[in-house]
Amino acid sequence: MLSFGQVIAEARKKKGSSQKDLAMRIKKEDGAPISPQYLNDIERDRRNPPSEFILSQIAKELNLSLDYLQILAGKVPEDIQVEQYKPEEIEAAILAFRRTLRKAGE
User: Fold this and answer.
1) Same-domain pairing of 41 and 63
2) Per-residue pLDDT of the chain (106 residues; tens, 9 = 90+)
3) Do 22 and 66 lie in a common domain?
4) Do 8 and 42 meet the contact criterion of CB atoms below 8 Å apart?
5) Paired residues of 27 in beta bridges
6) Residue-level pLDDT at 83
7) Are residues 40 and 8 in the same domain?
8) Whether residue 11 is found in the same domain as residue 57
9) What's the domain range around 60?
10) pLDDT at res. 30
11) Where residue 67 sits, what CATH number does that domain have?
12) Any bridge partners for residue 85, and if so which?
C-alpha cells in the first residue's frame, strides 16, 4: 500500500504537474501559496499531512477523493467526527466499513 505522500506524488506525476506548479495552486489559509519544498516534504512523508484546508485543495487539483486522502492521512472526515455519535454507532459503522472492504477485495 502506498503512503500518503506517495499517493500525492503519484497523482501529481500522472497529471503531468511539477511540484512547483502544484504548490503555486495550493493556498494556505492566508492566501499565500505553499512552497514547493513543503510539497516535496509531504510527498516524501517528512511532514505530517496538511490541514483539511490544504488537503481539500490537493484533492481537487489532483482529482483525488478527499475522504480517501483523509483516511491515508489518519484523519476522520469532519462530517463524521466521533463526538457526534454514540460509541455503538461508531462501532457498527466501522464493522460495516470492514465488511465492505473485505467484499471488495474478494
Assistant:
1) yes
2) 899 999 999 999 999 999 999 999 999 999 999 999 999 999 999 999 999 999 999 999 999 999 999 999 988 887 777 677 888 998 998 899 999 999 998 8
3) yes
4) yes
5) 33
6) 74
7) yes
8) yes
9) 4-75
10) 97
11) 1.10.260.40
12) none
Locus of grid cell 511540484:
19
Lookup: cell for 75: 484523519
Residue 38 is placed in which grid cell? Answer: 513543503
Let me know whether 58 and 96 are in one domain: no
Q: Are residues 37 and 87 located together in one domain of the fold?
A: no
Long-range contacts of 19-22 (CB under 8 A, 24+ apart): 19/43, 22/58, 22/61, 22/62
List alpha helices for the chain, DSSP H: 4-15, 19-25, 36-43, 52-62, 66-72, 87-105
pTM: 0.83
Residues 6+ apart with CB under 8 A from 27: 33, 34, 57
Please check whether residue 32 is in contact with residue 16, taking contact to mean a CB–CB distance below 8 angstroms. Answer: no
